Amino acid sequence: MTLKVGVIGTGAIGQEHINRLNNKLAGAQVVAASDIDAAAARAAVAKLAPGAKVHADGRAVIADPNVDAVVVTSWGPTHEEFVLAAIAAGKPVFCEKPLATTADACLKIVNAEIAAGRHLVQVGFMRRYDSGYRALKKAIDDGAIGAPLMVHCAHRNPSVPEAYVSSMAIVDTFIHEIDVLRWLIGDDYASAQVIVPRNTRLTHSKLDDPIIVMLATKGGIRIDGEVFVNCQYGYDIRCQVVGEDGVADLPEPQSVPLRREGRFSTAILQDWKLRFIDSYDVELQDWIDATKLGKVDGPNAWDGYFAAVTADACLEAQRTGAVVPIVTTPRPVFYDKG
Ligand code: NAD
Ligand code: ISE
């Protein structure tokens, strides 16, 4: 059986996902799409999924009887509406991060899914599918470095558009670390603090760049995460876990080492599309396969909610400079992993 997918939002990652669902991966076909920019949706469909129907809005994509499952790749503030509508229609939904832009909105989604009585929601935290993070997790789980004590990480983008402001460093960018580190070390967060060093000359009045996010876990692990979105030199994701018996690093992406003109060098990737290209493929293939079996195997609505609660605490810490506790509602039994 082919999973017939409707995609809402045909911007950068929407087009990437339409292409992989329709032309790269097995078992799915994009049959419908929409974007508030209708011309952009028509152009994306003509190029990547000819024959798919272009709808006037996202709700029409969800209601289309030909659509079995929905992919939400529109702007973050629209996610809540479309995920709730997909749950109400009883359709599985893959939503790009963030699940919603506030913890309250994510909790609404959690409660709607529980009321629907079956798992329908997966969140696009693709780093859990990255071979490097998976190898790092295996080393930690196998006890290669003993109990983790500290994590040092960095999330660097070469540059960001003018519309990117301070809060986005948390809800758009560091949200990836928030999810993947919790999964990596198997511990929930207890508190957050944000430190603002001297700003780069390349930022503007509405963006503190770089920042350092400090997280403490319930088990006492300390995490420091640098977010630097105007670093210029490339798209660079780093993660080092310091344990009682050793230190484990996230592997560098493969690149041919070159010796030339008196220098020894390797290329640095320039954006997320290439850095995580394999992870997106594995993530969406897994989603297609699990959806056909009526399951959600990847990051679920609870993970999206947990990330949003943490992000809200980081935002408060960013505003106030205080150490802010991270407190969630108790995890419903519905989200216990069998
Ligand atoms: P983008 O601006 O390139 O695309 C977003 C698209 O959504 C635009 O075409 C816009 O017109 C459309 N849109 C906005 N409101 C809409 C609505 N109500 N209905 C339909 N379409 C609507 O942004 P992007 O970089 O593609 O990001 C989209 C989402 O994907 C964001 O939530 C972002 O955080 C996430 N993202 C995830 C990753 C990742 O690594 N997992 C990478 C990039 C973006
Ligand atoms: C973007 O939305 C992503 O998800 C990228 O992975 C991240 O590096 C970038 O900062 C975000 O804006």
UniProtKB/TrEMBL annotation:
<feature type="domain" description="Gfo/Idh/MocA-like oxidoreductase C-terminal">
    <location>
        <begin position="137"/>
        <end position="325"/>
    </location>
</feature>
<dbReference type="InterPro" id="IPR036291">
    <property type="entry name" value="NAD(P)-bd_dom_sf"/>
</dbReference>
<feature type="domain" description="Gfo/Idh/MocA-like oxidoreductase N-terminal">
    <location>
        <begin position="3"/>
        <end position="125"/>
    </location>
</feature>
<comment type="function">
    <text>Involved in the oxidation of myo-inositol (MI) to 2-keto-myo-inositol (2KMI or 2-inosose).</text>
</comment>
<dbReference type="GO" id="GO:0000166">
    <property type="term" value="F:nucleotide binding"/>
</dbReference>
<dbReference type="Pfam" id="PF02894">
    <property type="entry name" value="GFO_IDH_MocA_C"/>
</dbReference>
<dbReference type="InterPro" id="IPR004104">
    <property type="entry name" value="Gfo/Idh/MocA-like_OxRdtase_C"/>
</dbReference>
<dbReference type="InterPro" id="IPR000683">
    <property type="entry name" value="Gfo/Idh/MocA-like_OxRdtase_N"/>
</dbReference>
<dbReference type="InterPro" id="IPR023794">
    <property type="entry name" value="MI/DCI_dehydrogenase"/>
</dbReference>
<comment type="subunit">
    <text>Homotetramer.</text>
</comment>
<dbReference type="GO" id="GO:0019310">
    <property type="term" value="P:inositol catabolic process"/>
</dbReference>
<dbReference type="GO" id="GO:0050112">
    <property type="term" value="F:inositol 2-dehydrogenase (NAD+) activity"/>
</dbReference>
<keyword id="KW-0560">Oxidoreductase</keyword>
<protein>
    <recommendedName>
        <fullName>Inositol 2-dehydrogenase</fullName>
        <ecNumber>1.1.1.18</ecNumber>
    </recommendedName>
</protein>
<dbReference type="Pfam" id="PF01408">
    <property type="entry name" value="GFO_IDH_MocA"/>
</dbReference>
<comment type="similarity">
    <text>Belongs to the Gfo/Idh/MocA family.</text>
</comment>
<keyword id="KW-0520">NAD</keyword>
<dbReference type="InterPro" id="IPR050424">
    <property type="entry name" value="Gfo-Idh-MocA_inositol_DH"/>
</dbReference>
